[in-house]
Design a protein that fits this description.
Blueprint lengths: L1 E6 L3 H13 L2 E6 L2 H10 L4 E5 L7 H8 L7 E6 L3 H10 L3 E5 L3 H12 L2 H6 L5 E4 L2 E4 L4 E4 L2 E3 L3 H12 L4 E2 L1 H8 L10 H13 L9 E4 L3 E4 L4
Parallel strand pairs: 1-2, 1-3, 3-4, 4-5
Antiparallel strand pairs: 6-7, 7-8, 8-9, 10-12, 11-12
Length: 229
C-alpha cells in the first residue's frame, strides 16, 4: 500500500482528503504543523508527501528546503489559488508538482498517481539500461545519475526530464511531451512547472568543462540536450 504523508493545518479539509485517499488505496499519515510534518517526513518511510504552504510551526517552503537536504521523496505542494510566486518558489526548492486549493480530491488522486507512475518513461526509454553523454551517466534501473563519477541528487521529476532529454540527445523535445512524461499530465496554458524543473536541472548539472551548456532552450519548440558526439 502506498504510504502518504499529508501535511495541512486545515483539519476539516485534511480529514476529507485523508478519507478519500484511503478509499483509493493510500495509507495516510496526517500532520497539522510544519515542524511535526518535517520530523515525520525525515524519519518515516513515505512514498509521497502532500504539503500545504501555510502551516503553523514551520511554513511549507521552509520545510521543503530542509527536507530536500536529506530526502528526495516526491512532494505535491498545495498552494492558494493565484499565488504564483509561492508556486514557483516551491518548484525551485524541489517540489515535484503543485495543485491550487481548493482542489477536487479526484484531481489530487490523479496527480499523485501520475507522480507514482514511471511506466511511460520506461516504455519510451532505449533498450540500454544506461545513457552516457560525456561525463554524465544516467542509470535507468537504479534511477541514479553520476556526473564526472560522482552521484548527483535529483528529484524524481528531474530524473525523468533528464532521461527524456538524454534519450533524444541532439533533438528537440517539446514541453508537452516532457510534461506528459515527467508529470503525467498535459501541459496547461501559463504552466511554468517544466521551465522551473529544467532550470533546477541546469543548475545541478552545470556547464561542461569548456563552458558550453548541456541543455538548450528553443523558444516555442522545447528543450534539447546538446550531444557531444
Amino acid at each position: 500500500m502506498t504510504q502518504l504523508l499529508l501535511i495541512d493545518d486545515d483539519r476539516a479539509l485534511s480529514a476529507l482528503l485523508a478519507e478519500y485517499l484511503q478509499q483509493d488505496g493510500f495509507s495516510v499519515t496526517q500532520a497539522f504543523r510544519g515542524d511535526e510534518g518535517l520530523t515525520l517526513a525525515q524519519n518515516g518511510d513515505f512514498d509521497l508527501i502532500v504539503l500545504d504552504i501555510m502551516l503553523p510551526g514551520r511554513d511549507g517552503l521552509s520545510l521543503l528546503r530542509s527536507l530536500r537536504q536529506t530526502r528526495q521523496t516526491p512532494v505535491l505542494m498545495l498552494t492558494a489559488r493565484g499565488e504564483d510566486t509561492d508556486t514557483v518558489v516551491g518548484l525551485e526548492l524541489g517540489a515535484d508538482d503543485y495543485l491550487a486549493k481548493p482542489c477536487s480530491p479526484g484531481v489530487l488522486v490523479a496527480r499523485l498517481r501520475a507522480l507514482l507512475r514511471r511506466g511511460p518513461l520506461q516504455a519510451e526509454a532505449p533498450p540500454a539500461t544506461t545513457l552516457t553523454e560525456g561525463d554524465l551517466e544516467l542509470h535507468f534501473g537504479r534511477r541514479e545519475v553520476h556526473l564526472a563519477g560522482s552521484p548527483l541528487t535529483l528529484t524524481s521529476v528531474e530524473f525523468d526530464l533528464l532521461a527524456q532529454l538524454m534519450a533524444a540527445a541532439g533533438h528537440v523535445v517539446d514541453k508537452g511531451r516532457l510534461s506528459e512524461t515527467a508529470l503525467g499530465r498535459s501541459l496547461q496554458p501559463f504552466d511554468r512547472s517544466i521551465d522551473v524543473h529544467i532550470s533546477n536541472l541546469r543548475r545541478k548539472l552545470g556547464n561542461r568543462h569548456d563552458g558550453s551548456p548541456r541543455i538548450k532552450t528553443l523558444r516555442g519548440a522545447g528543450y534539447q540536450y546538446l550531444s557531444q558526439s
